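Quick one:
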Amino acid sequence: MKTFPRALVALVLQACLAAAYAQQCPPEVPVQGAPPPGPLPVFPATNWWNTDITAAPVDPKSASFISFINNGGVRRLHPDFGGEVKPGSVSIYGIPYAIVNGTQPKQKVKFKYWDESDGVNLDTGKPIPFYPIPAEAITEPHWVEGGAPANVDQRKKNDRHLLIIDCTNKHLYELYNVYYNPTLNKWFGGSGAFFDMTKNDRRPEGWTSADAAGLAIFPGLVRYDEAWNDNVPEIKHAIRVTVRATNGHVYPASHTAGSTSGALPMGARLRLKTNVNGVDPATRTNDPHARKIFRAMQRYGLIVADNGSDMYITGTFDKRWNNDILNPAFATLMASDFEVIKLGWKP
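Output:
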């Protein structure tokens, strides 16, 4: 029987994988907000974003953590995503993302937190060509969080995330607090991170990402192509959530961005209960798509990823979202409908 060198076999397999991924690229790229390359969910099934937590134990301090979030009142959920603030406006709700293919030219980005960022020569602190940023993001609205083009400096009033998926290689690039200086013809940012969506690589301990917890942002977003697509029976991943203050970090987070006593750590998971006073809280809304989101909160939970407003659920910018449905549906859920699973829990 004829045998082939291992190196040749590896090259053939690599080419086949690349071809398979390329077939799942949108017809035209770069594009903003198209469905990501499958299979879904993104990242391996064993990734922390995709872990079933229905059987995870409750943390002994769960009630205390929930009380901290309620802050003496009743904290309800809020969808921190939507479409344009006004029809035709530059300002938007939610986090946009771009899809490019493997031929997209790589750009240098000069970071404030360069020593915890990817795409940097860590010996010199100088950026290297690394991020496949589409040129459209420089001058066109709705490619960067907040809505304004990247050549508008809004770093002081907005997180200005820029998320990019390379659909050919299933690579994810995430940037925080970006700005393109048209005078210098250079990109600037707070921090940046790279993730291979075929692997479960975690950030180095102590490192941030484009998110305070050191986690990837994209896999935790509520997306229209999942939630409102009746051909997708369930959302199979955890969802990103913010709280007003945090205290340290636990697995799967790698970075600390707060030390407030009584607060949850970055990386903590909240799970929507299936029974509150004899009723399943997911059934408080009659909308089947909102219920699908709530079912994901029961099976995969919420992961604390950043400091912000308490119980704000992060999703994508998409003009098809209907906040007249989302806002009242989310308001049926309260922080007390959730429990905190054991901090740092691993299956």
